[in-house]
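Why do we care about 3D structure at all? Because function follows from shape, and shape follows, mostly, from sequence. That is the central idea of this module. The next example makes it concrete: a single protein chain, its amino acid sequence, and then its structure expressed as tokens.
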Amino acid sequence: MSIEFCSQHLLAYDNSIIASENDIKSKAEENLQRIVQCMDALKNGKDEFGDVAYQMTKTNHFNIPRYSKIPKEKKNTKWETFAQKKLMKKNKSGLIYDKNSKGWVRRFQKKQIKINEDNASFVHEYKPSDNIYEDPFERMEEEKEIKKMKQKMREMKNKFHQEGISTEDIKYIARQKKKRDNLMDNLKTAQISSSTFGRKDKKLKKEKKMEVRNSAIMKQKCEKRSVKDEIKQNNKLASIVLKSL
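And the structure:
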């Protein structure tokens, strides 16, 4: 049986049965001649450098598996879906006209154009609705900071949307974190709530000792009583309870 030769992977396959070890050498020589003939049949003249050029066949005899996993398709962000709907073109002109310098500027210098506009408009006219005692330039700086924070929030939302995390999941994580913080605060107060401030209390095997400031311990006061006073107090409470029955 003739061997199968694939020019795309440069592989040859022979599934014929070899009866004895003595036939291995003769079979290898025969297959080598067959491979050389297949390689000669792929010659397609010479290239511009004078080297022999080979033309690969379209048929693929071997389906070799991938080395790595097929990458998962990423979800489009809100901006990408909006751009696809509006059929916006990515290839825009690289130049923008600047009114201040009265010339053409690169698109990546758009931020510098805004700075030039702000520097050019150094006089601010008050409107009837504006506050006279408020600095307009400070207000503009605050508005810029707010815009930056909003933009960061939008970027985070887009990342969560791309990863498949909803806003409900984020709220759930925040609630769980708040519960954990409350539990840690309760554990701190519970560990120092006894008369010995937790020094002689029983603890679990994996219970960690929480760090508490000395001021929190000093605020707690313990009233010193004798055994007789405690017995009297307990008898009074018992009599009050029994009378109410």
